[in-house]
Fold this sequence. Notes:
Helix content of chain A: 10-25%
Order of helices and strands of chain B: HHHHHHHHHHH
Strand order of the largest sheet of chain A: 3-9-8-5-6
Number of strands of chain A: 9
Order of helices and strands of chain A: HEEEEEEEEE
Helix content of chain B: over 70%
Oligomer: heterodimer
CATH architecture of chain A: Sandwich
Shape of chain B: globular
Strand content of chain B: under 5%
Amino acid sequence: MKPYLFIFCLLPLTTWAADPEIPLAIRNHQFEPVEVRVPAGQKVKLIVHNQDTTPEEFESHELNREKVIAAGTKANIYIGPLKPGRYPFFGEFHEKTARGVVIAE
Amino acid sequence: MLGSAIIVFREALEAALIIGIIGAATRAIPTRKPWILCGIGVGILGSLIVASLTGRIAEMAEGVGQELFNAGILGLAALMLAWHNIRMARHGAQMAREAKQLGQDVASGNREMSALALVVALAILREGSETALFLYGLVTGGEESPVAVMGGGAIGLAFGALAGYGLYAGFLRIPIGQFFSATSGLVLLLAAAMASQMARVLAQADLLPSLANPLWDSSWLLDNASLAGRFLHTLVGYEAMPSGIQAVFYLATIVLIFAGMRLARVRQPIALPPR
């Protein structure tokens, strides 16, 4: 019984701190804002709203993330905890214009 | 036109490489062709359905529907590959002895192929639905004419298929003595690669912790965006910046399948009386 209790005591430490939510929009195949500042060392929830009439795929090799976002919908993407630094991301379906960077600090 | 060719090539490449491996691994089964073609057909049809439902799938399960769906596809495909390898470990020695006889065992070949045709369908479903969405977006967005989009797509698809065929043809040149260990080794790593991707999408949906993130950074050596990086990503699960949970899933899959193959091999004399 005791080991279980010990684990339950630890749970609040990991789950209670609500993850910061960062909104992000896709408009005319561009990200807004282009630079996203997030706290380092913490899990962060990106909420990406695709306001275009075409689908987009949020992708980042540095963040190790990839998600299709249908036209006019919002997608939640959890990233991190990140070390301080720059993490570029792009829209795979419009790679030339849809570019942005997450800055963890 | 070039844009659609490049994206379709990228997506088709992954599916084509997987089909190439499966085609080679099942060379001894006479009914493999209709099964693989059937898998391709089901995969393409499924892609169109999934693409049209993308918005709805994404909204399911409180916004993590897409991740759960992809994790399910990857997990099922990895499971089928594991089953194939464990089965081959049991039959491998026997197959080498009486390759002809086992090759003509239609019922056994069909069981085998139904699982692998499912892997083909799932691989196409995953890449194909994204491709369909992308092409649809290009056409409806009016950025390019439908003819240019489809032409580019056809070129990309052709090059992707060519790469898959190249892998297949290369495999067939391996001498028969080493062939089974070569294909089962690659199928093992392919299953581990899928398990690692499954861990990534579940971490993206916050259903699993990332653990160390990234565990290492080898993008200076081989970037995942490069062609070689993509190749190795599909075939053996290479990641330039993996999270810790991916490594855990990758290694656990290898250990589990390997243990299953060893167990199947040990039991062989009891499980399979001579025909």
